[in-house]
Amino acid sequence: MSGENLTYPDGQCTRYVADNWSEPVGPYWGDGREWLGSASAAGWDIVAGTTGGEAGDIAVWGPNVGGAGSAGHVALVVQAAPLTVDESNWTYPLRYDRRVVDAASQAGIIGYVRPVMTAAVEDETVAYLLSGAAATPADLLARRIKVHEWAHASGAAITPAELSESVMDEVLAVWVESGAEAALARMLGA
């Protein structure tokens, strides 16, 4: 996604995370301290507190705690134990680095954004698709839909960005088995 998130200033932590997280980030979730609320409003799963982060999460620091400035801070979790993050504008001004988060810094984390849609958003989305409403692949991406519950028999989570031609045959097979091939055709704009 690099270069697409021009609403986040170059070199800032928010720009780095927006450009490098595994999922689409909204056009402007605010300063780092605002990301838990913005991500929650967008339907992403939130884990509150200083611990519990997993690889792939976004760690969110509150303002003026744990070494963060007044805008807070966000970073990508690359390892849970010891907590290791990829980030920008922490160790070096306006530059990327990877660091192991020490206890004092971890105390400033107010929560984590998990790259999984909340169950309520998934349920609403699945209901929308099963209603037969026309949805193009672009609609699916815009809604940030997790399709694993209705499209992937192995149970692995598939994001809209991963819905490439290589998995489309499997998605189609599941829909045909369920008798919903006409809804799938409408969903794909066929």
Textual characterization of the structure:
By secondary structure, the chain is α+β, with helices and mostly antiparallel strands. It folds into two domains: 13-116, endopeptidase fold (from Nostoc punctiforme) (Alpha-Beta Complex), CATH 3.90.1720; 119-187, no CATH class. It is 33% helix and 18% strand. The protein has eight helices and six strands. A six-stranded antiparallel beta sheet has the order 1-6-2-3-4-5.
What labels describe this entry?
190 residues, alpha+beta, 18% strand
What does the oligomeric state look like here? Answer: single chain
Shape: globular
CATH architectural category of the largest domain: Alpha-Beta Complex
What Rg is obtained from the alpha carbons, in whole angstroms? 18 Å
Cα end-to-end separation: 27 Å
- Spatial strand sequence of the major β-sheet: 1-6-2-3-4-5
Average pLDDT:
74
The arrangement of helices and strands along the chain is HHEEEEEHEHHHHH
Poorly predicted residue ranges: 140-168
Summary, kept brief:
This protein is an alpha+beta fold and 190 residues long. The protein has two domains: 13-116, Alpha-Beta Complex (endopeptidase fold (from Nostoc punctiforme)); 119-187, no CATH class.
